[in-house]
Amino acid sequence: MTITCQEILKNHQPIWQEATVHPFLDGCKQGTITPEQFNTWLVQDYQFVVEFTRMVARILSVAPRHHFDVLLGGLTALKDELNWFQVKAAERNLSLDVAKQRTCEEYSQFLESLARTPYAVQATGLWAVELAYNQGWQLPGPMPEPYTEFADRWGNPGFTDYVKLLEQQADEMLSNASPEVQKEAEQTVITVAQFEKAFWQMAFNAT
């Protein structure tokens, strides 16, 4: 029996909801997040995206040729995103040269560990990370300033379309994977969800 990305989400709906519905995102919507809290999240997210870019590059190195276009598109977007982070940090007088908080460090290590898993697991993990961002910034609805730009970056229809393409690629690989690999892919989505929940929470570790 073959499992799909959507079936994984259905099997673990409460865990996934915690990854995409969080007081940090609600606070951005309601205007209750302080600048210090948002800035804490922002600089950690930059550190994460650096490691995430490396992960996507590793995935590209083992991907089948017909997956290249989608993955290369993702890497191009990540190049723009890293430059965008630098602009946002400058606007907020923030240094991006900061140490990773424990959650960010452990999440980064997890991303690195995916290189030692079958491609089906890596493709599923990539989809899960991007979906969490996409849904997390979409679900609160229209985001007021000064967070509109951030919500639009990860919640826009173009990014949603990209996530759907990643899902198609993951489903393709899962359809030919062994039950053991499918189970590993499912556990990867659970782990991503747990890390995403903890990552939003880092905003409240502002000093």
Provide a quick synopsis of the model.
With 207 residues, the protein is an all-alpha fold.
**Helix content class:** over 70%
The radius of gyration over CA amounts to 17 Å
Mean pLDDT: 96
Q: Which overall shape is indicated by the principal axes computed on the Cα atoms?
A: globular
* Number of beta strands: 0
Counting DSSP H or I runs of 4 or more residues, the number of helices is 10
**What structural class do the secondary elements suggest?**
mainly alpha
Uncertain ranges: none
Q: DSSP strand (E) fraction?
A: under 5%
Ends distance:
49 Å
Largest sheet: none
Q: Helix-strand pattern, N to C?
A: HHHHHHHHHH
Describe the protein's architecture and organization:
This protein is an all-alpha fold and 207 residues long. The protein has helices at 5-11, 13-20, 23-30, 35-62, 68-91, 102-113, 119-138, 148-155, 157-175, 179-201. Helix 6 runs antiparallel to helix 10 and helix 7 (119-138) packs parallel to helix 10. The chain starts with a helix and ends in a 6-residue tail after the last helix. The model has no long low-confidence stretch (mean pLDDT 96).
List the helices and strands and how they pair.
Blueprint (H helix, E strand, L loop, with lengths): L4 H7 L1 H8 L2 H8 L4 H28 L5 H24 L10 H12 L5 H20 L9 H8 L1 H19 L3 H23 L6
